[in-house]
Amino acid sequence: MELTTLWFFIVGVLLIGYFVLDGFDFGVGMSLPFLGKDNTDRRLLINTIGPVWDLNETWLIVAGASLFAAFPEWYATMFSGFYLALLLILVALILRGVSFEYRHQGKGEKWTRWYDQFIFWGSLLPPLLWGVAFANLAQGLPIRPMDGGGWLFEGTLLTLLNPYGLLGGITVTLIVFTHGLVFISLKTMGEMRENARKLASKVGIAAIVAGAAFLIWTILQHLQSETLWAIIACSAIAAVALIGGWLANFAGREGWAFTANAAAIVFALLAIFMALYPNLMHSSIDPAYSMSIEGAASSQKTLELMTWVALIVMPLVLAYQAWTYWIFRKRLSRDAIPAEAH
After folding, report:
1. Which positions, given as ranges, span the membrane (predicted)?
2. What is the CATH number of the domain that holds 299?
3. What is the distance of C-alpha 180 from the center of its chain?
């Protein structure tokens, strides 16, 4: 396998890891208005992700850095074309992170309510906008090569808000919401565990319907693609995993449900990456204007150096993250929340 293709899939793996791990973080944040009957409940929900949420977000940082180093033209074109959408995501993530740290610093219910709202919207907007962005990548964007090199995005934020893109955003939002609710039922006990499981069953149905519509639409858009078989296979596995996760949650098997939901996210994103391959961005203006993997990649020496760094660093990162999850594996309950906690 050529290094350009290898790094296309490495970037894909990093982004998939981000959506699987930070995905349930987003789902927990979105659950605050639905499961947080009082401040103790909301504090319990936040504590389920307290030790890991910032660690999960490092996957996005590493993915962005790898994208910049391996495919600078892809990075530049996406960040210029998706500028406003990415800015909104960044603002939402900042507000969300600040809220986790400052929510308990104030005095009074009004202070905590404001930060609870920031956590909710900071958890809702990123998966919605990420879903819109990735759906548009799979569908194709109005890009063309420039005379001086690089590619130009000839669209606006409204260009991204097309029916297929919006369906992608809704689908990702519903799936990560379900993912987060299952994580809550996996990490808590008592009434919170049962309420999260029941809500996951309801939201899971909507996620299955939206996911099926999105994956079918994706397949229909790529009937002439040379990777059609891979798109169909990944879509089918994602659909089976999503349904299996719903059944496992309904049966009260949170561990299996969480694993199945994670698999659904993995294979749904793989379907999108297969829809992209062998390009990085499809041009809706003219297929000849599409950005190929080879055309947007860094030099061979750069990719070789990055490969050696990845071989050394990635096992250490994975080991540290696995250790962190193991240390904080115990279930939580309302009784563990101090009465004076905000």
Report:
1. 6-32, 74-98, 118-141, 161-182, 203-222, 228-248, 255-277, 305-328
2. 1.20.1630.10
3. 12
DSSP SS3 for 332: strand
Whole-angstrom distance, CA of residue 121 vs CA of residue 332 = 24
- The partner residues of 153 in beta bridges, in order of sequence, read 143
Nearest CA to 129 out of 103, 160, 175, 154 is that of 160
Is residue 341 in some structural domain? no
- CA triplet 250, 129, 20: central angle to 5 degrees? 45
pLDDT in tens, 274-301: 998 888 888 888 888 888 888 888 888 8
| Model pLDDT for residues 117-169, shown as the tens digit of each residue | 999 999 999 999 999 999 998 888 888 888 777 788 887 778 888 999 999 99
Q: Count up the domains in the chain and report the number.
A: 1
Q: Containing domain of residue 94, as a range? A: 3-336
Residue 36 lies in a domain: yes
* Token output for 241: 């995993």
Length of the chain counted residue by residue: 342
Query: Is 47 within the bounds of a domain?
Result: yes
